[in-house]
C-alpha cells in the first residue's frame, strides 16, 4: 500500500486526533483518552514536533499517527533524557498492512538523527520486539507504576547507550 509519512503540521491536529480516537475505539485495554493525550503532549515541553508523524494516503487523508515525546529516567539526582513512544495509531480499516511498522521505523530513525539515545514503550510484548525493543528490566529501568514486566520495553538507539543508566521513568505532566 502506498503511503506517505511526514511530520504532523498544525493544520493536521484535528484530523490526527480523530484518527487516534478511532484507532483506540475498540481496544479493550484503552481508556479511550489517547487522542486527548496527544493534544496535551503537544502543549508541553516534552513535545518534539519532528517526532509527531502522520501516515497519509496519496490523496493526503491521514490514516495513522505516531508520537515520541521526551521523558526522563531518574535516579537520585541523576536525570537521563529518553523518549516515550505513545501513542501509535492506525485507522482500523488500514491496520495489518504495515502502516504501523512504517510509522515506528520512521520515528526511530528520526529520533536517532535528532541525537536521542533511547525510546521507552509500554505496549504489547508480541509487537514491539520486532523493532528491537527489549524488556526495560534488562537495564534496571523501572516504570513509575505497576505494569507487567514484559510490557515495559526499551530500545537503545546507540549500542550501550543505557549501560550506565538506571532509575525510574518519569513521564511528562501530559500523562498524569
Ligand atoms: C498497533 C497498531 C498501531 C499496529 O499498526 P498496524 O498498521 O496494524 O501494524 P502492522 O501492519 O505494521 O503490523 C501488523 C502486526 O502487528 C500485530 N499487532 C497489531 N496490533 C497489535 C497489538 N495490539 N498487540 C500485538 N500485536 C499487534 C499484528 O498481529 C500483526 O502481526 P503479524 O505481522 O505477525 O501478523 C494498530 O493496530 C493500532 O492502531 N491499534 C489500535 C491502537 C493500539 O493498540 N496502539 C498501540 C498501543 S500504544
Automatic annotation (TrEMBL):
Its EC number is 2.3.-.-. Residues 3-158 form the N-acetyltransferase domain. This is GNAT family N-acetyltransferase. InterPro entries: Acyl_CoA_acyltransferase, GNAT_dom, MshD_Acetyltransferase. Keywords: Acyltransferase, Transferase. It comes from Gracilibacillus marinus. The keyword Acyltransferase applies. One of its GO terms (molecular function) is acyltransferase activity. Pfam families: Acetyltransf_1 (PF00583). It comes from the Bacteria.
Amino acid at each position: 500500500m502506498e503511503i506517505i509519512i511526514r511530520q504532523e503540521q498544525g493544520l493536521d491536529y484535528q484530523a490526527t486526533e480523530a484518527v487516534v480516537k478511532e484507532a483506540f475505539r475498540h481496544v479493550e485495554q484503552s481508556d479511550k483518552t489517547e487522542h486527548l493525550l496527544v493534544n496535551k503532549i503537544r502543549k508541553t515541553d516534552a513535545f518534539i514536533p519532528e517526532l509527531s508523524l502522520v501516515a497519509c494516503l496519496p490523496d493526503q487523508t491521514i490514516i495513522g499517527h505516531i508520537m515520541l515525546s521526551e521523558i526522563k529516567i531518574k535516579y537520585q539526582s541523576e536525570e537521563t533524557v529518553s523518549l516515550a513512544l505513545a501513542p501509535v495509531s492506525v485507522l482500523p480499516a488500514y491496520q495489518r498492512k504495515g502502516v504501523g511498522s512504517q510509522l515506528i521505523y520512521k520515528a526511530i530513525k528520526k529520533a536517532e538523527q535528532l541525537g536521542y539515545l533511547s525510546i521507552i514503550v509500554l505496549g504489547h510484548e508480541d509487537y514491539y520486539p520486532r523493532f528491537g525493543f527489549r524488556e526495560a528490566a534488562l537495564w534496571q529501568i523501572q516504570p513509575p507504576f505497576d505494569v507487567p514486566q514484559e510490557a515495559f520495553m526499551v530500545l537503545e538507539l546507540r549500542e550501550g547507550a543505557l549501560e550506565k543508566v538506571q532509575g525510574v521513568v518519569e513521564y511528562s505532566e501530559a500523562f498524569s
